[in-house]
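Thread: copper (II) ion complex, take 2
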Amino acid sequence: MNCPSHCCQQRFPLISVLQRRPQAIADITGSPECPHITGTVRFYQMRSGVIVYAEIRELPKAEENCCDRIFGFHIHEGDSCTGNMNDPFSHAMSHYDPEGCTHPYHAGDLPPLFGNHGFALSLFLTDRFTVNEIIGKTILIHDAPDDFRTQPSGDSGKKIACGVIGRVKNNGTY
Ligand SMILES: [Cu+2]
Ligand SMILES: [Zn+2]
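Output below.
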């Protein structure tokens, strides 16, 4: 293991970042099977990577104790949340992977969402892409956890919600 001996942490002005307008947003909508899912994913470009801030509502809930739901979460390379009868978001294609990596090292592989009686909030930093690189791509929620091992996509099950990532313009529209 290569642990640097000098700490290089910087103070991270998280609150001021989240008060700014994000550079990109995806509005999330559910599949025909889960039409109530809604949410927003915001992307903030930082020098050290992209802060991703997701708030998702009306996710499927756990039926009993000890199984609150975990949902695979990825950026996919396709540009449309459309599809067919078998897969309502098939046009979202596969995980965004410009470097030809394996799962879970695709640029589009993200930490899974933890459900809290249907609500999920996630906030993390990733330097696997820049905001400019993901404009027009899609962000997907799956109905099963990502096992971070199975190829090519972590065995995360059906796609249950999707959003197209749009650049936020100066007037706030996207
Ligand atoms: Cu996915
Ligand atoms: Zn992947």
